[in-house]
UniProtKB/TrEMBL annotation:
This is Polymeric immunoglobulin receptor. GO terms for biological process: detection of chemical stimulus involved in sensory perception of bitter taste; epidermal growth factor receptor signaling pathway; immunoglobulin transcytosis in epithelial cells mediated by polymeric immunoglobulin receptor; receptor clustering. Interacts (mainly via CDR1-like domain) with dimeric IgA. Interacts (mainly via CDR2-like domain) with pentameric IgM. GO terms for cellular component: plasma membrane; receptor complex; secretory IgA immunoglobulin complex. The chain crosses the membrane at residues 634-656. SUPFAM superfamilies: Immunoglobulin. Residues 726-738 have a biased composition (Basic and acidic residues).
Length: 764
């Protein structure tokens, strides 16, 4: 039953990682009589900074006896030669032990809290014999990759062969002799230096000391059983391993210093495995491990030193590394190296941020970058990682207002959302934008971060014109269409500058028809400039936010042009030069005709028809009935056509006037008063702002190629409106004015016809 209950608990509760977040050196070695300093790291938290720290020695059955702690306790064996110091600002504590003895060799733990809690790290300490004469010989201690000189002494002067051999499996193998022999393992590294025939000593020198050089040697003068021999023990002291403590998803920096003598050779960082092999991670010859692609940089420095930055740490990055130098950029035995031990803390304080973002051509991406909340006011950067020889990261934007020239209008850095993250927005994406980008700060370098941008197939979610044109002094409206998926998001318009994108007031214009597969939740958001000034020219972005998080954006470039000066008034624009004089004359004639219809008939004709005051009645009487018949015929033939023409003209004028008086706006312009129908203008945008901001700035129609209310195709207006942009159109005459002009012309024509009838009645 108990086992069943335990199994149920294991099934319900998640598996907890037992890996301790405490980190220190795995191997520490020193020489008796010297001192050692051991640094242990712990996770950054207020609890860890103030809790108990300890150093204990492991014994039988897993028990660990405390030797020194941060509470001031020191065991009797360590009194006067050991201490423990906490450094909360760097999340470390250091154990110092002086006057080491061979008996100090053993296994230890450095930890936090109670010894049995498990928050500890295992450390192996090895104390080597110190240099000097021992009971059976002399001891030498050499540093790895250093040089050691061994003094071989003998008792009697002897000019015989001198040699050095090394013990291996109970056999002493010759390493070098005075006749010129050198073992292959010591080629170009070992030599014998004879001081003189009268000296009772010669020197055995080893350069570029290796770990395998440690052991027991015999110096020998002469051959056979009468040869003089002396024993020498060589101990090789391993270099102190540099420790790196990094958080999962954080970053670390290897600071490698190999000496000025190697400044002109290729340098590298490699990772050890199988105890001996070391795979190149990166070198100055351009080689990089695939697992570190996009998240590693090598920066050469003076005097042979260099640094290697690794970001977005993974669990598998933990392990042993070597900084080194060689002409081919790889590890070779005997060449200078510097060991490193990297620990990756899985109990990270780094926020969980996507390391890959995807965008479409013409769209945008919003990238979250982490920073240490303690460095909220520090300078923040965004750079692009380039696959050069050593790797390179070119800064593109910074929080102080710097934006690389080719990214103007496309890139901005928002300090929001804050609390450890800021946002970088890149829009108007192209396939060339794909690659790796780094988030950097002037503060804590552990917070460097890498994100990969991938360009995928698809269409941008937001719709707006790429370019727009406005005129100074006018009212101008920019509109943006949002699909259904952004219904609950906050929408905004902002004006881009190198210091950011300042939010502007905007208005909800209701449902959008730009998305055929969407419902009434798709919206249009507009921004109005009233009046437009030259300072309004530039880039404008519309976008969405989900709380403090920025989402998709689209950019529009607004060009501002000076307004073309209109000529005088509408009546003068409607008429050509000199037309006003002609029109006034026509109106004068029209007035006279209306006031005196008799002008249609010649005065002489009227008198001939009959004037009772005239004394010529006798002449008329004498003319007989034939003359009267001719006069009647002429009069009838003249008046009947004129009457018909007048009737038709009156009907035409009446129809035209009735047709255009239905929807007429009465406008008074200067001293001329007329009726103007707004439907007579070709396009209302000639006299106002753009209304359709989801449309192309040229055609003023939606980019989906729809039709306007009158059924006119979008493409059909493109050429016409383009011409309007280049040269403003004159205002078109209203139908009322055209009717008036036609009527006065008709009156002039009838007047002329009457004059011709008077001159030659026979033709009619």
């Amino acid at each position: 039953m108990g086992l069943l209950f335990l199994a149920c608990l294991l099934a319900v509760f998640p598996v907890i990682s037992m890996k301790s977040p405490i980190f220190g050196p795995q191997e520490v070695n020193s020489v008796e009589g010297r001192s050692v300093s051991i640094t242990c790291y712990y996770p950054d938290s207020s609890v860890n900074r103030h809790t108990r720290k300890y150093w204990c020695r492991q014994g039988a059955q897993g028990r660990c006896t405390t030797l020194v702690s941060s509470e001031g306790y020191i065991s009797r064996d360590y009194e006067g030669r050991a201490n423990l110091t906490n450094f909360p600002e760097s999340n470390t504590f250091v154990v110092n032990i002086d006057h080491l003895t061979r008996g100090d060799s053993g296994r230890y733990k450095c930890g936090l809290g109670i010894n049995s809690r498990g928050l500890s790290f295992d450390v192996n300490l090895e104390v080597l014999r110190g240099p000097g004469l021992q009971n059976d010989g002399e001891v030498y201690v050499a540093d790895l990759h250093g040089t050691v000189t061994i003094n071989c002494s003998f008792k009697h002067v002897n000019s015989a062969r001198k040699s050095v051999c090394k013990m291996r499996d109970q056999i002493c193998l010759t390493v070098i002799d005075s006749n010129g022999y050198v073992s292959s393992n010591y080629a170009d590294r070992a030599e014998i230096k004879i001081l003189g025939t009268s000296q009772l000593m010669f020197n055995f020198i080893i350069k570029q000391v290796q770990l395998d050089d440690a052991g027991t040697y015999f110096c020998q003068v002469g051959n056979g059983p009468n040869a003089q021999k002396s024993k020498v023990d060589l101990q090789v002291l391993k270099p102190e391993t540099e420790l790196l403590y990094g958080d999962l998803r954080g970053s670390v920096t290897f600071e490698c210093a190999l000496g000025s003598e190697v400044k002109d050779t290729a340098r590298f960082l490699c990772r050890k495995h199988n105890g001996k092999d070391c795979d190149v991670v990166i070198n100055t010859l351009g080689q990089k491990a695939q697992a570190f692609e996009g998240r590693i940089l090598l920066i050469p420095k003076d005097k042979g030193s260099f640094s290697v930055h690794i970001t977005n740490l993974r669990k598998e990055d933990a392990g042993s590394y070597l900084c080194g130098t060689h002409s081919d950029g790889q590890l070779h035995e005997g060449y200078p190296t510097q060991p490193w031990q990297l620990f990756v803390n899985e109990e990270t304080v780094m926020p969980q941020i996507p390391s890959v973002v995807k965008g479409v051509v013409g769209g945008s991406v919003a990238v979250l970058c982490p920073y240490n909340p303690k460095d909220a006011d520090s300078l923040k950067y965004w750079c692009r990682w380039e696959d050069t020889q050593n790797g390179h990261c070119q800064p593109l934007v910074e929080s102080a207002g710097l934006v690389k020239e080719q990214y103007n209008g496309r890139l901005t850095l928002h300090k929001e959302p804050g609390n450890g993250t800021y946002t970088v927005i890149l829009n108007q994406l192209t396939p060339e934008d794909a690659g790796f980008y780094w988030c950097l700060t002037k503060g804590d370098n552990r917070w460097r971060y890498t994100v990969e941008l991938k360009i995928v197939e698809g269409e941008p979610g937001l719709k707006a014109p790429k370019n727009a044109v406005a005129q100074v002094g006018e009212t101008f409206k920019l509109s943006c269409h949002f699909p259904c998926k952004y219904y609950s998001f906050q929408k905004y318009w902002c004006k881009w500058s190198k210091k950011g994108c300042k939010t502007l007031p905007s208005q909800d214009e209701g449902p959008s028809q730009a998305f055929v597969n969407c419902d009434q939740k798709s919206q249009i958001i507009s921004m109005t400039l009233n009046p437009v000034s030259k300072a309004d020219e530039g880039w404008y972005w519309c976008g969405v936010k989900d709380g403090p998080r920025y989402g998709e954006t689209v950019a529009v470039y607004l060009s501002v042009e000076e307004r073309v000066k209109e000529s005088q008034d509408i009546s003068q624009v409607d008429s050509a030069p000199g037309e006003e004089v002609v029109e006034s004359s026509v109106r004068e004639v029209e007035s006279k005709v209306i006031q005196n219809p008799r002008l249609f008939v010649d005065d002489k004709t009227v008198k001939d028809v009959g004037d009772p005051a005239d004394g010529s009645r006798g002449s008329a009487d004498a003319s007989s009935s034939a003359g009267q018949s001719g006069s009647s015929t002429v009069l009838v033939s003249t008046l009947v056509p004129l009457g018909l023409v007048l009737a038709v003209g009156a009907v035409v004028v009446a129809v035209l006037r009735a047709r255009h008086r239905k929807n007429v706006d009465r406008v008074s312009i200067r001293s001329y008063r007329t009726d103007i129908s707004m439907s007579d203008f070709e396009n209302s945008k000639d006299f106002g702002a753009n209304d359709n901001m989801g449309a192309s700035p040229v055609t003023q129609e939606t980019t989906l190629g729809g039709k306007d209310e009158c059924g006119t195709a979008t493409e059909g207006t493109a050429t016409e409106n383009t011409t309007e942009t280049e040269e403003p159109k004159k205002a078109k005459r209203s139908s009322k004015e055209e009717a008036d002009m036609a009527y006065t012309a008709f009156l002039l024509q009838t007047n002329n016809m009457a004059a011709k009838v008077q001159e030659d009645p026979e033709k009619f």
